[in-house]
Amino acid sequence: MGRFHIGLIINPLAGLGGPAGFKGSDGMAEQALALGVEAKSALRTQTALELLLPLRERLQFVTCPGAMGADLLAEMGFAHQVVGESAAGPSSARDTQKAVELLQEAGVALILFAGGDGTARDICAAVREGQPVLGIPAGVKIQSGVYAISPRAAGELTARLVEGGLVRLSSGEVRDIDENALREGRVTARWYGELTVPQEGGYVQQVKQGGVESEELVLSDLADWLNDSWEANVRYVFGPGSTLHGLAQNLGLQTTLLGVDVIENGQLLASDVSEAELFEWVDGHAARLLVTAIGGQGHIIGRGNQQISPRVLRAIGLENLRVVATKRKLATLEGRPLLVDSGDSALDDAFPDAVRVWAGYKEELLYPVSR
Q1: Is the pLDDT of residue 211 over 60?
Q2: Could you tell me the pTM of the whole model?
C-alpha cells in the first residue's frame, strides 16, 4: 500500500492575540509578538501529529515552507513534500489560500490546518467543494464547526482514517466574529460558508432497528436520498452487485444484477451495457459512477466490472466516482483499504488516497484506497 497523502497548513500567527488580551489575532499579531507573546500554533499542531507517529511510514505530508508546516514536519521526522514559496514577511490570508490551492493540486486526501476562525475563513475562500478538511484548534476564538474539539482529537481522527476506520463526512459551518467590533464590546458573528469535515463514525449505525443495521432499510434510505438529489441530464452509471441492484429496485428501476446500467433523469437508458457501449454513453456527457465493494475483499474497480475500463473512468472523471456500501459491508474488511486494479497503473496511481462512500441517507464516509 502506498503512502497516505495529507496536506498540512499551520497559521503561525494564530492565537497570538489571546494572551495579549486582544480578543483575537486578526491584524494584531505583530503587536502581540512585540509584547513577547510566544506563538503556540506549532505546539498545538505537534500535539495532534504525535498521534500519527506510529503511522509515520504510511504517511506522506504535503505542506508549506518554514513555519507554515515544513519546519515542524522535519523536526518530527515525517516524510513531506514542500510546495510554494516562503512568505516574505508574516504569513497572510493570501498565503493560506495559495497553500490550499497547491495542496489540492497535489491531490491530498485530507487538509489539516491549524488556526482559528480567521484561518477557517481563508480555507473556505479557496477550497474546492467536497475537499475534506479538519481544523486543529489554535486560535483565540473557535466559533466554526470545522475544528476538532482538541489537537489530540484531530490527531486521533486522522489516525482512524489512515488505519481504515469508518469516518463520516459532514458539513461544518465557518463563522467568525468581527474582532474590531468585539474590542468595542459588540459581538457580531457572520456565516462565511461550509466545509466538508470528517467526523468519527461508528461501525454500526442505529437505523430503525435498535442499533442493528438492516441492509434493506439502508438501501431504502439511500434510494430516498438519491431520488431527492438526481442531477438533471446527468448520466448515472450503476455498476454490478447486489448492493446497487437493490438500490435500483428501491428506485423502481429494473437493472441487471451482474451488469452495468445507465440511468438519466430517473429513467433507465441502457441495460447490461458492454465497455464500448458504456463509453459511448458517457464520453463527452456529464456522468456519475456508482460502484460497490466486494464484501470481505474490498475491490471497487477491476473485479467483476471490467466494463468500467480506464477510458470509461477517465471520461467520467475519478472525482465523480462514489462507492455505495453499508457500514456492515465495510466492517467485513476489518480496516483494510478499498482496492483498485483497472489495468492502467497510471490511472490507478491517480486515484485519491480516500474515496467517498455513501452509507445511508445523506451519510457519507471517507475510506482509504490502495492500488
Answers
A1: no
A2: 0.76
